What we know:
The protein is an alpha/beta fold. The protein contains 6 helices and 8 strands, in the order H-E-E-E-H-H-H-E-H-E-H-E-E-E. The chain has helices at residues 2-7, 37-45, 60-64, 73-84, 103-118, 134-144; strands at 14-19, 24-25, 28-29, 89-95, 123-126, 156-158, 168-174, 182-188. Strand 4, helix 5 and strand 5 form a beta-alpha-beta unit.
Amino acid sequence: RAAETAAGRRLVHALDLHWYPEAQGGGVRITGDDVGDATADARMQAPRSLWDATYVEDSWITGCCTGGGAIRLLPWVRDFIDAGYPGTGIAITEYNYGGGGHISGGVAQADALGIFGREDVFAAMWWQLSGERAFVDAAFEMYRDFDGAGARFGDTSIAATSSDVPVASLYASVDAVSSGRMVLVAINRSTASVIAAVRIEHTRRFTSARVFR
């Protein structure tokens, strides 16, 4: 920031982070291909460390460096930026939650994408760690091609909350091109079907819906 003041122009546009979670389930780190119940559950919960002040993962990070509290990576970094160099974006140019060939990996990836959008991450790049990726690809399709014909998440994130964060996440968007369209991505972290009531508050009345699963 001091150098920018001297130069008279912006010098740093984004702070670039690599984030390979250290979270464990049953003593196994989630970034591998293990799909045991404990690992899978920890994997699906792990994206909450990106933002959730109520979630404390099982990892050496929370054991040594957060005083036993939550990581809240993105708000934590944003606080430093706002204090020292406002206007700097956050990029996560390498990350992987493991389990690319299992539904738990797809759930974690879909959740991470929703969080990146909602928390205004400037850029993010998934980094492949193994040959397994089918469910990660499916997670991207939830936002980029959910009907197989190019339908995608909107260009503007809007407020969406879940009443039971350990079980479910919800992300919502509207679109400048089609003002009458809202897209919701609902994520179930549990091992059973969940019946959810969704309440929409909008200046526009919606009369129909399509559901993709």
